[in-house]
Design brief:
By secondary structure, the chain is of the alpha+beta class. It has one domain (7-115): Alpha-Beta Plaits (2-Layer Sandwich), CATH 3.30.70. Helices cover 29% and strands 40% of the residues. The chain has helices at 26-38, 78-88, 106-115; strands at 7-9, 16-23, 44-57, 60-74, 97-100, 103-105. The strands form two sheets. A four-stranded antiparallel beta sheet has the order 3-4-2-5. A two-stranded antiparallel ribbon has the order 1-6. It starts with 6 loop residues before the first strand and ends with a helix.
């Protein structure tokens, strides 16, 4: 980001999304991240290791080590991204949680829009 870049906030930036996806291991995460970026469903994917997840599944509390994918994309790419995650993900019910990015570096948000385009 250049020093002259501005920070923007508000509804005008609400077309950019951050999607959270957990995966069981680095190989799965890297494959999923690579596919989403190559297919232009995402501009960028960060793999965050060392996530410990507690959740209830099939009546029992689970305690698993996972990785977290932070996916930056456009709102109009979410349905296709979620479909692709379902195709590639080993979990029966993969996490695909969409968060609106309502602010950020104007130049970065523009880059996300350009790179995550059909």
């Amino acid at each position: 980001m250049s020093r002259s870049d501005t920070f923007v906030s508000g509804a005008a930036e609400a077309d950019v999304r951050v999607v959270l996806i957990t995966v069981p291991d680095g190989e799965t995460g890297a494959g999923l991240a690579r596919a989403l970026v190559q297919e232009r469903l995402a501009a960028c994917v960060n793999l965050v290791p060392g996530v410990r997840s507690f959740y209830r599944w099939e009546g029992k509390v689970q305690d698993d080590t996972e990785l977290l994918l932070l996916v930056k994309t456009r709102a109009d790419r979410i349905a296709a991204l979620a479909s692709r995650v379902r195709d590639l993900h080993p979990y029966e019910l993969p996490e695909v949680l969409e968060l609106a990015a309502v602010g950020g570096s104007a130049a970065y948000l523009d880059w996300v829009r350009a790179e995550a385009s059909a």
